[in-house]
Amino acid sequence: VRASRPHVVHAHSAKAGLAGRVAVRGRVPTVFQPHAWSFEAVDGRTSALALGWERFGARWADHILCVSESERRTGQEAGIAARWSVVHNGIDLDRFRPGSRADRDGARALLPLPRDADRDAPLVVCVGRLTRQKGQDVLLRAWRRTAVPGARLVLVGDGPDRKALEEAAPPGVLFTGACADVRPWLHAADVLVLPSRWEGMALAPLEAMACGRPVLLTDVNGARESLPPGHEEHCLVPPEDPAALARALTALLTDHALREAVSRRGLRHTRTAFDVRRTAGAIAGLYQELVGTSAPTTRKRTER
Hints:
Oligomer: single chain
Number of helices: 13
CATH architecture of the largest domain: 3-Layer(aba) Sandwich
Distance between the termini: 29 Å
Largest sheet: 6 strands, parallel
CATH superfamily of the largest domain: Glycogen Phosphorylase B
Strand content: 5-15%
Number of domains: 2
Number of strands: 11
Strand order of the largest sheet: 7-6-5-8-9-10
CATH topology of the largest domain: Rossmann fold
CATH class of the largest domain: Alpha Beta
Structural class: alpha/beta
């Protein structure tokens, strides 16, 4: 920090975020962005310790920047004292665009699906690191209850839980490993599902909706704010509830008209509310405020 002499330090996530704030200790305007709270990821005494560190680190942040109102509310209700800002996550809408039926069929033809797979069978895709946070273990339990003949499930991503998940998976579940470009999988999917245990605001559902695909999420931080108003009934289930997840998946996979309606509204909502250029502009406005210059008039932030 002394060598680079920054005007603003923007520290991300629990470990690096705390290290950055303690290293700077208020000598440079500092923004901390949790990307989901560390105390949500652990239990018992470890959770209490993590919360203590979050409260301690907050004194060295000029702003805590959250990606959803619910993430901010969780921190505030946990007793973290801060100046709060909320800037929703955004995605590159030039990269994540809806595909045609031909794009869907082309993606399915090129992807490494089993040779005997019915290319028109319902396809459910989950994109995320294979970790406890993302809840793929819950999804596998739900998949055994999903009453859709011929449907296939694909887990896109890699991570420390892969071996355990592969051992627990029923026949026919495909593990892709790490994937540099998830767009073909999103175009191929009938539904994107993300059964997370905790989040700030996940990116994969925004990317899927921008590609014109319906999503099914667990009701964790950021999920309700990701969805268009009124979609909670069809697209949101409680976390760690495989029975509810299976029912919602079955409903979406067996009702083409519902999927189409959900997809259209999700596409409009995402393209209106989650452009990464808006996100970048809002964060740049915060930086300008911290270094004492005027913020752009287009900046949209919520402070508490």
